[in-house]
Structures are given as structure tokens and as C-alpha cells.
TrEMBL record:
GO cellular component: cytosol
Family annotation (PROSITE patterns): PGM_PMM (PS00710)
Residues annotated with Phosphoserine modification: S125
Record-given protein name: Phosphoglucosamine mutase
Origin species: Petrachloros mirabilis ULC683
Role this protein plays: Catalyzes the conversion of glucosamine-6-phosphate to glucosamine-1-phosphate.
Similarity remark: Belongs to the phosphohexose mutase family.
Residues of the Alpha-D-phosphohexomutase alpha/beta/alpha domain: 29-159, 180-277, 281-394
EC number: 5.4.2.10
Pfam families: PGM_PMM_I (PF02878), PGM_PMM_II (PF02879), PGM_PMM_III (PF02880), PGM_PMM_IV (PF00408)
Gene3D superfamilies cross-referenced by the UniProt entry: Alpha-D-Glucose-1,6-Bisphosphate, subunit A, domain 3 (3.40.120.10), Alpha-D-phosphohexomutase, C-terminal domain (3.30.310.50)
Cofactor binding, note field: Binds 1 Mg(2+) ion per subunit.
Length: 474
């Protein structure tokens, strides 16, 4: 245990002028998944210190006299940001429990289970190594509300002469708490199923799940083959993990495995691969898990919540099952909001971010991988057979078009030539396809997604729309 009394900092000590420049450079500091950006540009120790202090000041008004849970991924910058954030929190008089390297859902779970004031994860999820991020959770383990984010950000703009060392908290290393999470996600499965005889390949992306995921699958009886299984912040997500499935696909076929799973850097999402090397994205995971919960009569209203990115093939198949697919904006916080609105018990994103309140309080790649494996084992079929019996996706193409100008990204909907082309595309495809154009909340890109009944139609409109974005916005 280290006393925070050693921390005696003021805004001038941490370069208030630099902080002011950062905040004015990007007025909306919090994006769709916390604060995320390039280390040394947006994300600096200065900013992390201030964010920690003001997050503590804001959240302790709601839940006083409680600890704050902190976790991090393997990025080379995560130690630096975690220490700066801890200094800010302890300077606000808060006790910090640092879990060390762990997946994001561990922070969410332990925040709720320990009745903490809040939780924070240092990670940029699937982003490249040079990026990092700060994700906050409230006392219930949910992503921090937009109202609270704005309150924290408002204080950051106003903090000109604030002295930080007014009320000192404590810093405690608590890695042993991670086992509480492990026990919680295994408990519903261990008495119902085991994975003996199941050969599984895990691509751990050099990230947050390198220790936990193999341990949990082995404890369930599986034979485990690991890829990219050391914490390496300089290679996290680089040509591996959930955004690059090729290494996993090759390994599954090479080792004759029954299935494989690829996590992202903070393991809050997962994608699967069947024994033939075919990708199994979040749409298929939601469909298979939805059918299972529907049979168990544990899916209220037979509702699944997904995003505007989900494939039409999935939507039509779920309707044939008698279910309803509710679409939300992209981002797990929007999925969660729609789930609460409809009383849904299953939701998620095509990217593999799945939420099932029966078993967890946040998107959780490891929990999802365990339950998909259990579905395979209990069905008596292979994942490939389950996939063949599910649905066919419409051809879908997603292109990221770099738009560095933030104002142009934010106001793309006022671009008249692009709007005219969108209207033309929608009229041409009718009910045989759809188009989605949106500005990313985590990267400097405009995402263009087109899906249609034929690949020719999909590619035709993708190319035209990407060219329009490059011409008028890029």
C-alpha cells in the first residue's frame, strides 16, 4: 500500500497550458467509448492526472467512502497512464484498487461486485499500439452516463487554479481480486457442461486476456492452443486478434481444432472461427445464443438488440424464428440502452461485443467464448454444423475512409452531393439492400457500409460512395 501523501501537485506542476491546448483542440473529449487517442498527442500524463482528479470529485458525490477499481491492458503506455490516473484519483481523496493487467469486463464486474465508487480501464480496445484510452464505469458496472462524462469534462475546462493535494487517498495493488471474476463466469457452466475433448485455438492479440483466457478454458477441460499469448504492448492487435482473423483461421485448420476464438486488445469482444476456418461474427453468435435462450424460455419477448451494422440475413432469419431484432446506434452503450428500454436479455454488435445480463453486466469476450463453446458441446453438433443450419448473410462491404478534419467528419450529413448519392443508392436497392454511412466515434474515419442481395450491387455502391466521401470530405 502506497500513501498518496507523496503526491503534491498543482495544475502548474502538470503544464496547465498544455492541458488547455489539448482541451480546446478537441472540445468533445469523451467519445463513444470513453477517451481515446494517440499517446503523446491527446493522451498524456497531464490529461490523465486531471481526468482522474475530476472523475473522483464527480463520482464521490454519488458514492462516497468507496474504492475505485483500476485495470489496464498491455500497451507500453498503460503503466504511465495508470499511474497518472491513480495520482489524480488519490489526490481527490479516493482509495484506488489497481488490478493490473486484466480484460475490461473484469473492471466492470468488480466495480459492481465490490460496490465501488466507479471503475476505469486503461485501454484503446482494438486500436493500434500507439493509441490508448480511458474507459469509466459507474458503481453498477455500466459505462459512465453522458451526463457524468460532460460534468467531468466541464470541470477540466474550468480547472485553471486548482490545487490537487487537498485530500489524500491510498493506492493498493489488488491483482488477487481477478479470481473473483473468474469464479463468477465459470459458475453457471461448470455443473452443466465440460469441454473435455474440445480442441480450441485462442488468439490473445498480445493483450489483456493472455493469462485469463487459457486458464479458464483449461479449467473447463479443453485442450488449448494459444497464439500471441504474451503481454506485448508494442504488438497489441498488430495483424492478429479480432480485427485480423487470418492467423487464427490458419491455426484452427493446421491443428484440426474444433473451433477458435480471437479477442481484441482488452478482451471485451470476441470473434469465432469454425473447424473449416470460416469466420463467425457477432451476428451469428447472437443468433445461436438467441436460439438457445429462446428454447430455454429465457429471452423475454424473443427480442435481440443489435446495431445498424447487423446483416439483413441475420434480421430475416431471426424473424423466421418468431423473434424481433431491435437496432441501435453503433456502440455497446447504445445497445445497452435499447436492451434496458425493451427488457431484452441479449444484445451486441457484429464486431463481437456481446451483452447477456443473465451472465454478465458488460460486453465480455471471454464469457461469450465460453458460452458459445457450451452451446456447441450441449448441441452435440460442431460449430460448422450449427453455422450451416443458421442463415446466409447478404454480401456486405465496410470501408473506412480517412477524414482527418474533425469538423468535416462531424458535419458529413450536410454534404449535399453525398446525401444525393445516398438517396440514389437507397432508391436503386429498395428492400434488397441498405446503406449506412457514419462518422466513427473512436477513429478519424467515415465508415461506409453497403449490403445487398448481390455482391455486384454491393461493390458498385460501395465504390461510388467511398469516392464521394474522398472527393467531398477527405
Amino acid at each position: 500500500m502506497v500513501s498518496a501523501q507523496a503526491v503534491n501537485l498543482t495544475v502548474s506542476d502538470v503544464a496547465e497550458k498544455h492541458l488547455d491546448v489539448l482541451l480546446h483542440k478537441r472540445p468533445a473529449l469523451f467519445g463513444t467509448d470513453g477517451i481515446r487517442g494517440t499517446v503523446g498527442e491527446l493522451l498524456t500524463p497531464t490529461l490523465a492526472l486531471q481526468v482522474g482528479y475530476w472523475a473522483g470529485q464527480v463520482l464521490k458525490q454519488q458514492t462516497p467512502d468507496a474504492p475505485f477499481i483500476l485495470g489496464q491492458d498491455s500497451r507500453t503506455s498503460s503503466d504511465m497512464l495508470a499511474m497518472a490516473l491513480s495520482a489524480g484519483l488519490t489526490s481527490a481523496g479516493i482509495e484506488v484498487w489497481h488490478l493490473g493487467l486484466c480484460p475490461t469486463p473484469v473492471v466492470a464486474y468488480l466495480t459492481q461486485a465490490s460496490r465501488a465508487m466507479g471503475g476505469v480501464m486503461i485501454s484503446a480496445s482494438h486500436n493500434p499500439p500507439e493509441d490508448n484510452g480511458i474507459k469509466f464505469f459507474d458503481t453498477h458496472g455500466a459505462k459512465l452516463s453522458r451526463t457524468l462524462q460532460q460534468e467531468i469534462e466541464g470541470h477540466l475546462h474550468e480547472a485553471a487554479d486548482l490545487s490537487l493535494a487537498t485530500d489524500c487517498g491510498q493506492y493498493c495493488a489488488r491483482p488477487e481480486l481477478v479470481q473473483t471474476y473468474v469464479d463468477a463466469i465459470q459458475r453457471p457452466l461448470v455443473s452443466a457442461v465440460n469441454f473435455q475433448g474440445l480442441r480450441v485455438v485462442l488468439d490473445l492479440a498480445w493483450g489483456a486476456a493472455v493469462r485469463l483466457a487459457p486458464e479458464v478454458f483449461k479449467a473447463m477441460g479443453a485442450e488449448v492452443i494459444c497464439l500471441h499469448d504474451c503481454p506485448d504492448g508494442s504488438r497489441i492487435n498488430v495483424r492478429c486478434g479480432s480485427t485480423h482473423l487470418q492467423p487464427l483461421q490458419a491455426a484452427v485448420k493446421r491443428h484440426k481444432a474444433h473451433l477458435g476464438f480471437a479477442f481484441d486488445g482488452d478482451a471485451d469482444r470476441v470473434l469465432a472461427v469454425d473447424s473449416q476456418g470460416r469466420p463467425v461474427d457477432g451476428d451469428y453468435i447472437l443468433y445461436l445464443w438467441g436460439c438457445c435462450l429462446q428454447q430455454q424460455q429465457r429471452l423475454p419477448g424473443d427480442v435481440i438488440v443489435s446495431t445498424v451494422m447487423s446483416n439483413l440475413g441475420f434480421e430475416h432469419a431471426w424473424k423466421r424464428q418468431g423473434g424481433t431484432l431491435v437496432r441501435s446506434a453503433v456502440g455497446d452503450q447504445y445497445v445497452h440502452a435499447e436492451m434496458c428500454r425493451h427488457g431484452a436479455m441479449l444484445g451486441g454488435e457484429q464486431s463481437g461485443h456481446i451483452l447477456c445480463p443473465h451472465y454478465g453486466i458488460s460486453g465480455d469476450g471471454l464469457l461469450t467464448a465460453l458460452h458459445l463453446s457450451a452451446i456447441v458441446r450441449q448441441s452435440g453438433m460442431s460449430l460448422a454444423e450449427l453455422l450451416d443450419g443458421s442463415f446466409q448473410t447478404y454480401p456486405q462491404v465496410l470501408k473506412n475512409v480517412q477524414v482527418l478534419d474533425r469538423d468535416r467528419r462531424a458535419t458529413w450529413q450536410s454534404c449535399e452531393p453525398l446525401q444525393q448519392l445516398l438517396a440514389e443508392a437507397e432508391a436503386d436497392m429498395g428492400d434488397q439492400g441498405r446503406v449506412l454511412v457514419r462518422a466513427s466515434g473512436t477513429e478519424p474515419v467515415i465508415r461506409v457500409m453497403v449490403e445487398a442481395a448481390t455482391i455486384d450491387l454491393t461493390q458498385h455502391w460501395t465504390e461510388r460512395l467511398v469516392t464521394a466521401v474522398q472527393t467531398h470530405l477527405g
